[in-house]
């Protein structure tokens, strides 16, 4: 009986055990899901907080293994969104090309779409079509997604100026989908404009009220001789003013105004429109490519206008002074800039050319056309490299780049400019160059410049050396402590002011401390502490002695470190500082114990 009762209870016990295991498994699953959700929330928070790099690091650490496909793809989607927000187009493409096998079809379609978009954003039209074909030939893909992919194929052909391919793709799309939406009609019109079917484009755009459609219809109408160029100029100018808060639309309006002004034989308005378009620094897009213009277009406009005025005034090519003198009487700044540009390239005298470049850069800069100035000298075929840009212009552009924190451009512009601008101190100029090179990561070039200043040995006043030492801090922060120490050592030997020498010793000690030469660091700190104050009891001396004690402790000279700390307590009255010193003295016992064990 008892055995039968026991046997009758056993199945129930097994069920309880099974329920317990299932319950634990469920709780663990909930915990894991919750943990993943928390990680994604943290990643989103970091991205919104302006730390996408940190968000990616957390994502790399927290992303589940690919065997957990649902969770892995959720993290991967978040990765793509972060990369997209930072315009890391190539990283998106590379990531999609190296995706592991066996991922869900829905995710792959989404990823291919992201990669196609990234390819278009980075002007890789052919690469975009590789991804788009995967979407188009995937018959399980939704009709809307396949239609989107086919429209993007048309755009990719236009990007490469393959107008016939774009037209064929467009006609097939029309047959299959018979679209009527505004976005489609804009794309349709863009293709027709590219193949010079202007009247057809004008008809397709009929009734569209959004600004992009109105701009394209004005363009089609003007090219089809339906609208007069002077009328288009007025309307394009009005649109440009109305959409001032939308750079892409305003840029398209300026492009239209430029073409209309050229057709209307209005060089002043043509130059104004070109300058305004370049000032927006827009990347070429589907619509602005219909009216192509760039920095060389503006250079050519300047030159043609100058020649026209020069002929009207009877000025002779080669009379550089006569051309330059005439600019003083012009009533329009566009005329002056045209003359400056003409002299910059056509003057017979090298000095006149340099002066013209300076005057042109001054005029554009002072009138607020800074982006236009940058485009003319950094994005033009007239200069095969930045080293060909005149020095006076490079100085100005480098300062602009610095103000915009474009350190790489600033360093490139400054490289090779050994002579300072007129009126600038040579040493300060070289110091300025060195600092830019440090920020750009070109440490050997920076160190060479800094050494050159000391080699020359001229103008090394106390005031200048104080500035010089500030640049040493940049080297130290960049981790170039050996180079900083060598230069500081030389600075110490040419410094006459004892207070300044005391500071230099401290910074030398900092470099040695960073290099883990704690013995020499301690010596230099102690020398700094007592150079102008034998007892080392002033604030500077106390700080230097504190650092010396730390270095001595790390060097294993525990007894010396304790001695310095104890003497330091005599000068220290602040309770917080005393507490720190006393704590460090206690920690020396740990150093001592470790050294004893060794």
Provide the descriptors you would attach to this structure in a database record.
single chain; 598 residues; mainly alpha; Serine Threonine Protein Phosphatase 5, Tetratricopeptide repeat; flat
Give an overview of the whole structure.
This protein has 598 residues and is mainly alpha-helical. It has a domain at 497-598: Alpha Horseshoe (Serine Threonine Protein Phosphatase 5, Tetratricopeptide repeat), CATH 1.25.40.10. Helices cover 75% and strands 0% of the residues. It is built from 30 helices and no strands. It has helices at 2-48, 52-62, 69-85, 89-97, 105-121, 125-136, 143-159, 163-177, 182-194, 198-204, 211-223, 229-242, 247-263, 267-279, 295-313, 320-326, 333-346, 350-366, 370-378, 391-403, 407-414, 426-440, 443-456, 462-477, 481-494, 498-514, 518-530, 539-554, 558-571, 575-597. Helix 11 (211-223) runs parallel beside helix 13 (247-263) and helix 17 packs antiparallel against helix 18 (350-366). The longest helix is centred in the first third of the chain and has 47 residues, at 2-48. The protein is flat. The model is unreliable at 1-34 (pLDDT under 50).
